[in-house]
Amino acid sequence: MEGLKKGFQIEFGSFSTNHLVDYHMTHVEPLFNLAPKKRLLNFESDFSQNSNSSFSKNYSLNRTSFPRGEIGFSNGVNTNFLSVQNHAEYISNLSGGYNVNYTHNATHGLFTDLYEARCNINKVTTEPSRVVQERWRSFFARSHPKELCLEICQSQGAAHVRNALLGMSKNERQRIIILAVAPAVIIPKNLARDVYNIFSSADDIYLFDRKGWKANKQEATFLPPYSGARIKRAIFKHLYWDHNFQSLTYKDTIQRIITNYINHPYEG
Amino acid sequence: MKVNIFLFLIIIIYSCTHDNSDLPLVDKVSNQIIFQTAGELKNEKQLFISGFGGGAVDGLNKLSIFFYCYKNLSLQEKRELIVFVTEKFLQNVNENKEIRSYMKGFPFTSSNIEISIEFKKHFFRPSVKEISLVAIHQNKIAYYNHDNDEKFLNEVFSETFEKAKEKLITK
């Protein structure tokens, strides 16, 4: 029962799971003191059905698998299947041609996607989070208990991944490394083994989480983006966002983290 | 017309925002240190933050910070820079009393932090022969450059943090 002391109980709709996460590390309370229950996560299961469009699913590039470990990807808003596949191929090429398993966070049109993103940012999980969890659990089931997986996510995908992590046990989260590119939310460090949030100054995605950024940003200014993005930003001002996953601004960092991961796919 | 589109986008964005005041305390404190370090290094060394992170599932055991640098530096200067940034970051982490209760081990050493500095030119990438990225990860400082097609980063060589410091002393 010691392990159950930390954190809050997560509720999925009308039922509760046994997962207790240490999301709020300071609020360590025994379970019986949690009255009234504070909801950390809600599950909206009918979002895809209600929006009357395609469902999110897991896919694979079917290239050569890593000898150890796995790289996953989940996309942001308004991204069709071919674009996600293209992003997965880009990651695969950066890793030297290895396989990438990816979740297509199906688009329901820009405005519905933005509404969904708002829900996700406020910790209401929708279908893609559960699909991401499925993919991770499938990896855990077929891999060595000490193997790690690298999850790369972009924009709204970061919110899905954050919500998916909230529904995983501590042991499972210990085996996941997160790289959030231009994330819609800052993924907290205590949700995964290693967490990286990378961003660009020519990208206003941080406005989605402006209070979070305001609280964290302090005096730091954002980085200058790659030259092309800087020129476009100078011309179009805030109408141009350096938010593309394949932007040169992020490329080297993504590649370095992938290379580090390939060299250390094991715990310890 | 452009102004209308801009206002429309801003309204949409603001309708999607939320109050993230519930970020875990370990994150608030560690992010404060990260951004404090970034602010200091921006003033002292003209480094611009491009990312941050860490690991804290079982207590804070890792902090990471990524930078861009637009200066033209020699290899020795790049070594000096990464050692300086590492020491500065470690100093800021270890001097902060608030973070100690969350740390898995105190004090933090160069094995507990990860720093990467990308060297860029204002309008062009550094040439193939130049070191374009220096990173410290698990106490190892690695120096990277790009291949001819600028597709991949290659590790040119690596050294331990202690060895890099020794080289600076015996310079």
Describe it for me?
The complex is a heterodimer of chains A (268) and B (171). Chain A has helices spanning 47-50, 81-94, 110-121, 127-142, 156-166, 170-173, 210-217, 227-236, 248-263; strands at residues 8-12, 15-21, 42-43, 57-60, 70-74, 100-104, 124-125, 149-155, 176-183, 194-198. Chain A has a domain at 41-197 and 255-263: Rossmann fold (3-Layer(aba) Sandwich). Chain A starts with 7 loop residues before the first strand and ends in a 5-residue tail after the last helix. In chain A, strands 4-6-5-8-9-10 form a 6-stranded mixed beta sheet, sandwiched between helices. In chain A, strands 1-2 form a two-stranded antiparallel ribbon. Chain A has 9 helices and 10 strands. In chain A, α4 packs across α5 (156-166). By secondary structure, chain A is of the alpha/beta class. Chain B is an alpha+beta fold and 171 residues long. Chain B has one domain (24-169). Helices cover 38% and strands 26% of the residues of chain B. Chain B is built from 4 helices and 6 strands. In chain B, α2 packs antiparallel against α3 (75-95) and α3 (75-95) packs across α4. Chain B is globular, with a radius of gyration of 19 Å. At the A-B interface, α3, β10, α7 and α9 of A face α1, α2, β1, β2 and β4 of B.
Class derived from helix and strand content of chain A: alpha/beta
Strand order of the largest sheet of chain A: 4-6-5-8-9-10
The helix content of chain B, as a percent range, equals: 25-40%
**Average pLDDT across residues of chain A?**
77
- SSE order of chain A: EEEHEEHEHEHEHHEEHHH
Described by the principal axes of the CA atoms, the overall outline of chain A is globular
Percent range for helical residues of chain A?
25-40%
The total strand number of chain A stands at 10
- DSSP strand tally of chain B: 6
The largest chain-to-chain contact, stated as pair and per-chain residue counts, equals: A-B, 64 and 65 residues
Q: How many domains of chain B? A: 1
The dominant shape of chain B is globular
**Structural class determined from secondary elements of chain B:** alpha+beta
CATH topology name of the domain at 41-197 and 255-263 in chain A? Rossmann fold
Q: What is the spatial order of strands in the main beta sheet of chain B?
A: 1-2-3-4-5-6
> Which runs of chain A of at least 5 residues are low in confidence (pLDDT < 50)?
1-22, 24-37
